[in-house]
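pasting for ref. prot 1 ->
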Amino acid sequence: MSLPDPAELITLRAAAALLRVSHPTIRRWISQRRLSEYRVGASPRVDRREVRGLIVLVSPRQEMQR
């Protein structure tokens, strides 16, 4: 497994804001191994690409038909 690009690592709070969930939710997902945690110094970070991978399409947008 290769390390992510350091420019793609974001804070847990930034990840929470991106996904519109709470900071504890991000922590829980890390402990459940849904997200990988990296350290930059003493600061925990997650890979932005991995976070974006948690965004899923629920249903396609349909144009209104008249």
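and prot 2 ->
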Amino acid sequence: MDTLAPGLTRAAVWSADGVTVREMPLPQPDRGQTLVRVDLATVCGSDLHTVLGNRPAACPSVLGHEAVGHIVATGADAPLAVGTRVVWSVTAACGQCPRCLVGFTAKCARVRKVGHESFDGDWPLSGGYARHILLPAGVTLVEVPDRVPDAVAAPAACATATVMAALEAAGPLTGRRVLVLGAGMLGLTASAACAERGAIVSVADPDPVRRSLATAFGGTPDSPDIGGLVDVALDFSGATAALTGALSRLDLGGTLVLAGSVSPGPTVAVNPEAIVRGWLTLTGVHNYEPRHLREAVEFLSGTVTRYPWESVVAAPVALDAAHEVLTPTPPGVLRASIAP
């Protein structure tokens, strides 16, 4: 294990030249801030999109917004005590702008985001691909029970919490036919969460390996030749063809929730008459609210032995090898991971 001089930490900094691990001074938290020692970070697909140039992002930066760790220092008025094991939200909200005041803290007018800030700015340690992360006031921290392994807890901060927001947008699910589009980490999490709420779940994905994972997460593999009407469709793929197909399968009063379209893509054609006559609802979610992160931790804690969460997270690499996992993952692996 590598050693560091007192007062230093290490971070994997992504730039135009690739990923370089740098040593830097360990910050001391100010009022409302929390310093966390990162135990494990998982690699969200959106970071892969960033590295591959598919979406704009601050550069250089410390990426990583799915992680779990222990609080090692706090400033005055910090929400939790030193030693607490936590996950934290992607967004830091001001709490005072019109959006925050009406409950849209995820879209705060002055929002700052974990793993999305410039390394050359005033929040260099903003991402989870580092030994430590400094969390400002406005970030939600949630305590994680010891029974939830690191590999299960880390995705709560993005994948699981986003699913909780999507399910809230979908409405009651008991007895309803739900089609999940995309059998990545979010899709399989949604499959399990919908099953837990009493839904009849099918999961669609063009990759047969990923599609077959649905059976372990409360769903049934779906394919175009199976088809059939559904009451709810949840999209985590962002694929135009998948969205078009889902729209055609919505039964009367059906709802389509979009959560996967987070980078530019082709326009989806929508027939207004079909929306009107079918009493259909189309909505989207991006980021999530603090309650969704709390629900995510509660959900994972309650299902930790019911679904094979750890099986879809690869064994962690060291921080020095972070560049090796910021690439598309092999079939069957939904999340790479880094142990800083």
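The chain has two domains: 8-157+308-339, 163-284.
The first helix runs from residue 45 to 51.
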